Amino acid sequence: MKSKILITGVTSGIGRSLTIESLKRGYHVWGIARRGSILREIKKNTKKNKFDFTSTDLSQSDAWEKIIRQIKRKKFVPNIVVFNAAISEDDLKDGIDLNSTRDIFETNYFSVLDGIERLLPYVKKDTQFIGISSISALKGNAREGIGYSGSKSSLNLAFETLQQKYSKNYHFTIVAFGPVATGMNPYKKNQFLSISEKDAVSLINKAVDERKQRYEKPIFLFLFVKIVKLLPQNISNLMFSVIENLRKKLLEE
Ligand SMILES: NC(=O)c1ccc[n+]([C@@H]2O[C@H](COP(=O)([O-])OP(=O)(O)OC[C@H]3O[C@@H](n4cnc5c(N)ncnc54)[C@H](OP(=O)(O)O)[C@@H]3O)[C@@H](O)[C@H]2O)c1
């Protein structure tokens, strides 16, 4: 059976590369994003009607209703769903900007839960749900703000919980990245510690092929953060601030 894959956030970065790679693999792709012009352009460049899309803002409460209506009309039943769309903005510039924190959670977290809830009665047994997460889920970071890391750690825990609840019928997989040289990453120019978009897509495809519960890349960076977090607080704070200063310098270069 050829896979049908639904991917959110297909108009740039990892989602766009994953879409192109999935089309190469022969999958039928249903893409979601706000920018209709880019979605139409992807469709135009795709042969054999293998790409369909819904242009919608996932932070809005009716987004998934619209998506489900459109995929049902076309009898598109995904057996892989990749929740990739996310936003990252500093909601801690001048105190806590609650509106911004809420916006981040709507897109990065609540829309994922809404999508799962609405897809579960529609998809077949054995469907895999993949949540794209980040190393930011492992530690707070004043540079990044509150919402991004908070939403990604919530996503990790939600997928862990859903896997326990539905392990007999479905797969819930988290694929987490350190910095990726793409849209969301401010260190695009200086790619020290970054992985490429191609490596990120390969890891998602590995997750699709193996269907384990968790994937992380680069492994050494995740290990480093996990180990440093076990050290006494003052030592771990010092180590993280050294790394942060180094990254700041790289960004300025
Ligand atoms: N880049 C990194 O360094 C990095 C590191 C770790 C994890 N990640 C994770 O990897 C995933 C992709 O990151 P990326 O760097 O490829 O991001 P990106 O280039 O900024 O792309 C984000 C995608 O999400 C879509 N999107 C954002 N808000 C949306 C909304 N409200 N409704 C619908 N679509 C929306 C955007 O499309 P429209 O603007 O057209 O809506 C775009 O296609 C994210 O989950 C991110 O957290 C990235």
TrEMBL record:
Keywords assigned by UniProt, alphabetized: Oxidoreductase
Pfam families: adh_short
Record carries keyword Ion transport: no
Keyword Oxidoreductase assigned: yes
Gene Ontology molecular function terms on file: oxidoreductase activity
GO cellular component: membrane
Family note: Belongs to the short-chain dehydrogenases/reductases (SDR) family.
UniProt name for this protein: KR domain protein
Organism: Candidatus Daviesbacteria bacterium GW2011_GWA2_38_24
